[in-house]
């Protein structure tokens, strides 16, 4: 199952202005896995929802 997870390291801003760090993409489940600063656990969102609510931050 983990062979479908691609490690990533990118920063995005959500629709509330909160910055998150995208750490993985689950190709089989079409989920984006990310972390919020100050939280110890990871979040996951379906790709279609993530694209609608998050914008990539410029470097």
TrEMBL record:
Domain of life: Bacteria
InterPro entries per UniProt: DUF4222
Pfam families named in the record: DUF4222
The protein's name in its UniProt record: DUF4222 domain-containing protein
Organism: Izhakiella australiensis
């Amino acid at each position: 199952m983990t062979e479908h997870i691609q490690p990533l390291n990118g920063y995005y801003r959500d629709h509330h202005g909160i910055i998150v760090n995208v750490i993985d993409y689950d190709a089989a489940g079409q989920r984006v896995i990310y972390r919020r600063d100050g939280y110890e656990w990871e979040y996951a969102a379906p790709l279609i929802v993530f694209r609608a609510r998050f914008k990539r931050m410029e470097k």
